[in-house]
Specification:
By secondary structure, this protein is mostly helical. Helices cover about 60% and strands about 5% of the residues. Strands 2-3-4-1-5 form a five-stranded parallel β-sheet, with helices on both faces. Strands 6-7 form a two-stranded antiparallel sheet. β3, α6 and β4 form a beta-alpha-beta unit. α19 runs antiparallel to α20. It is globular.
Length: about 900
């Protein structure tokens, strides 16, 4: 049974994104529809057993009609997206895909969509979250991408292939296209997971042609006419429909007058049909052919005629290549072939321009600004297009609809595009797209205009000047150029004539989500990828800049306060950290910036936890989760981040039931590779694996994560992974490797200024062992590039924990029974009188590793050398 679409989805999850519901509508069958022959329907039915179905043919062969009929007739749950050029925008494409699934399954896509709205989201992570949701749906579902030939974006092709490769077994994809999509399908074909329907399958048979003719004319064609129709059209549905229209208009011999390919057929038959239509209809068709979609009101405005909805419905029933776009019969479009033909008949450019402008103005009045811009650009009404682009640019930047905005800008003449108000939009667009090849040129052009302020209005001059400074600083931060960031911020700080930033055109009106979904926030670019010494210097200057100019209530201040709270926490400045966190929470709540709010709440909870107010710390997270729900982010990744921190708390106090359930629901329980970001969540998963003694799986994830984050320069993640590796190898009785990883972590921590990251109960014995190894020079590798003793002492002081009396009383007796198998072997050999070198040769170990084992044996037996160790071993009957 097919799932009924949820038509209220756009009012909740998608309330910040203006979707056209007509693009998600499964096309209904025309009155003249002919049921296709059984062999084609059987082939189409393979779509629900194969991963991918490709339906490819030139236009007019009935791809859409055939697939929509099959989905409706077989009651297939289908998530349908009708694509156009606008879906070459990555965000827009995936938003429509998510929306299509969400109509069927309202729980799908919440986290993916929330990630799409962050600054520099990971596309792979967004798709991974969508796939995780799809794994949970109970039914088989078909995703249909109609008119995929409109997609030219290499990035979308790549990500769709990524999606296909990882689709759960109950999800199937059907691609309708005029040409073979640029997606590798060879492996799917070899595995029998590709279902291909092509031109030869879609051609109408003589029986289907006969039925089609009968339904529209009321009589069967004679054998000669049927043969001629089949030969001339080669089963081409559009050609057959044109032949019917030509016959009904009195041109019964039309098929005898031509031969040739489809392009010739369409030109000839459409001309035959068109010239025999009433003049009022011809005029109507020509004037409305400029539209990609139309309704009665818009048609009336363009034609100057009184147009009722029933007229469009009648045109659809008359088979004039008019296609309904919704169930209510409000919106329609022309078949692409017919639209192309009609547009080719337009002879007066001036009249066509006027029609485009009229359409643009109508769409603007209705609030469809994207379509208003498209029609203004088609009319080459560039001033009108510029005004419209300026009116929507901030919103498009906020929604990351960057490809669309950039495409519009590039359609403008250079003179228009280089107007400062538009060029600063292009600068921001290309910064957020990661395109820096022309940035210096843009900045130079802007600077030249700004050097002649008389040519600009004063307010505009001031706004663009300041916006350019912020844009340059922001780009430097995204590129990780710390020195340039700092010098530019210093110049801003020293400027005593800053304008009223309330009026700045871009950044301060953009409401930009600066957090790309990370905890801590400074793990990412805003903390120079975890280089907290640099981040502290930058953000303390930023703090001074905010204080000097009293910028206390702006959204960007919430992010700065959050970053400072995280930096101070890691530097063990807890009182200052709490002050910054509470300031960030207050501003973030008022400004509705969730990416500053969530990490600040986690810092506040961490400090409460350290102060032994554990119940209050957990209650604080539950309150934060409730706030996230009230702000319509209840199913977002922000809510998940709070829940993940809660899992860390439960892991620490041993509530393993909740931890086990979280692990079972996490993506890493079903995948074996790292996709995108989610460092905080994956590190939590690894910590849980270690707690459950699943060291081999934890080791595998750590090695993957270390490799991925070293290549991307994520210092904080690299450091956390090194500490996990040290713990894992300690548990696996690899002391030499354990100490090497801990040494690397301490080197990195001292270089970058980390402290609290080492304050972990599980790390304390390893840190003390490291100190002893260093002191006794058991490992030469730790001496050549040493961690300073001062730093080591500070870290040790933070990692110390109070042991309860019972643990102290039991320690001496229990520790002697904690010798590992390898340590027992070494103990036996020293009792036998073997030297360190001889033990190393016998056990096939490095001599340094033997020294480490001896150090651990002495520590556990509470002795100072070999003789005491042998005595204690005899006392406890270990030999």
């Amino acid at each position: 049974m097919s799932q009924k679409p949820n038509d209220v989805f756009s009012k909740s999850l998608f309330n910040e994104y203006p979707l056209l519901n007509t693009k998600l509508y499964i096309p209904q069958q025309p009155s003249y529809h002919v049921a296709r022959e059984q062999h084609l329907m059987e082939k189409m039915s393979r779509a629900m057993t194969c991963k991918v179905t490709l339906v490819t043919s030139p236009p007019g062969f009935g791809k859409t009609t055939m697939v929509s009929h099959w989905t409706i007739n077989q009651q297939i749950p289908a998530a349908w997206v009708s694509l156009d050029q606008g879906e070459n925008d990555l965000l827009r494409f995936w938003t429509y895909v998510i929306a299509a699934f969400n109509r069927l399954y309202p729980s799908v896509g919440h986290k993916s969509l929330s990630l799409l709205q962050t600054l520099s989201f990971s596309s792979e992570q967004m798709i991974s979250w969508l796939l995780n949701d799809l794994f949970e749906i109970p039914d088989s579902v078909l995703l249909v991408l109609d008119d995929y030939h409109m997609i030219e974006s290499d990035e979308i092709h790549r990500l769709l292939a990524f999606f296909i490769d990882r689709m759960p077994p109950q999800v199937h994809l059907c691609i309708l296209s005029r040409k073979q999509p640029l997606i590798a399908v060879g492996l799917l074909r070899v595995k029998g997971q590709l279902n291909e329907i092509g031109l030869s399958d879609l051609r109408f048979t003589e029986q289907e042609i006969s039925t089609f003719w009968l339904r529209q004319t009321g009589v069967l064609p004679n054998e000669l006419s049927l043969k001629l129709l089949s030969d001339r059209t080669e089963g081409w549905v559009a050609g057959i429909q044109l032949a019917v229209l030509s016959h009904l208009s009195g041109q019964q011999d039309a098929l005898h007058q031509f031969k040739g390919n489809n392009r010739y057929v369409v030109d000839y038959l459409m001309e035959e049909v068109f010239v025999h239509l009433p003049e009022s209809i011809r005029t109507f068709l020509l004037k409305t052919s400029i539209l990609e979609r139309m309704n009665a009101e818009l048609c009336a405005v363009l034609t100057g005629q009184s147009v009722e909805k029933e007229r469009l419905q009648e045109m659809e029933r008359s088979n004039l290549f008019v296609i309904s776009l919704d169930a209510e019969g409000n919106w329609y479009r022309y078949h692409h072939l017919f639209a192309d033909f009609l547009r080719s008949k337009q002879e007066h450019r001036d009249e066509t321009v006027s029609l485009y402008i009229t359409a643009s103005e109508w769409f603007e009045r209705q609030g469809y600004l994207g379509e208003a811009i498209e029609h203004a650009l088609a009319a080459r009404a560039y001033d009108q297009a510029c005004t419209l682009i300026l009116s929507v640019a901030t919103e498009l930047l906020k929604r990351r609809e960057l490809t669309t905005l950039h495409r519009w800008l590039l359609q403008l003449p250079v003179a228009n595009r280089e107007r400062p108000a538009l060029l600063i939009i292009q600068v921001w667009t290309e910064i957020l797209m990661g395109r820096k090849e022309r940035m210096d040129e843009h900045i130079a052009t802007l600077q030249k205009a700004l050097d002649s302020p008389n040519s600009l209005e004063t307010s505009l001059y001031v706004g663009i000047r300041e916006d350019m400074k912020v844009a340059k600083n922001f780009q430097a931060m995204l590129l990780g150029n710390y020195q340039l960031c700092f010098s530019q911020l210093q110049a801003l700080h020293e400027d005593d004539n800053l304008p009223d930033i309330e009026g700045l055109p871009m950044l301060f009106g953009m409401g930009m989500e600066l957090n790309d979904g990370e905890i801590p926030f400074i793990r990412s670019y805003y903390g120079f990828c975890g280089r907290i010494k640099q981040a502290e210097r930058y953000h303390r200057l930023y703090d001074s800049f905010i204080e000097k100019n009293e910028f206390y209530h702006f959204p960007f201040t919430a992010y700065q306060r959050t970053a400072m709270s995280e930096i101070c926490y890691e530097r063990n400045q807890l009182t200052e950290s709490l002050r910054f966190a509470e300031d960030a929470i207050r501003i973030a709540k008022r400004s509705h910036v969730i990416g500053a709010y969530v990490p600040a709440e986690i810092i506040r909870s961490r400090i409460l936890w350290l102060r032994e107010a554990k119940e209050e710390a957990i209650a604080n997270i539950y309150e934060a989760m409730e706030h996230v729900k009230l702000t319509h982010h209840h199913s977002s990744h922000w809510h998940d981040l709070l829940n993940t921190y809660l899992i860390r708390c439960q892991l620490e106090i041993g509530e393993m039931g909740a931890v086990d359930h979280w692990m079972e629901m996490s993506p890493w329980s079903r995948q074996s590779e790292i996709i995108g970001g989610q460092d905080f969540e994956l590190l939590t998963f690894i910590g849980a694996l270690i707690a459950k003694e699943n060291t081999h799986e934890a080791l595998s994830w750590c090695e993957q994560l270390k490799k991925a984050r070293i290549s991307s320069g994520r210092i904080m993640t690299e450091l956390e992974v090194l500490l996990f590796l040290s713990r894992i190898h300690g548990k696996m009785n690899n002391p030499h490797t354990c100490m090497l990883h801990l040494h690397q972590a301490l080197l990195l921590g001292e270089r970058e200024g980390y402290l609290r990251i080492f304050a972990n109960t599980e790390l304390e014995p390893l840190l003390r062992e490291y100190a002893d190894v260093r002191k006794n020079k058991y490992m030469a590798e730790l001496q050549t590039e040493g961690v300073s003793l001062h730093y080591l002492q500070v870290v040790l002081s933070l990692s110390s924990v109070k042991r309860n009396t019972e643990r102290n009383n039991n320690y001496k007796e229990s520790s002697v029974h904690m010798l590992t198998v390898r340590e027992q072997e070494v103990l036996q050999l020293i009792a036998a009188g073997l030297s360190n070198k001889a033990i190393a040769e016998k056990l096939v170990l490095a001599e340094g590793t033997v020294k480490l084992h001896l150090h651990r044996i002495y520590s556990k037996l509470q002795v100072n050398g070999r003789i005491q160790a042998i005595q204690k071993a005899n006392q406890y009957r270990l030999l």
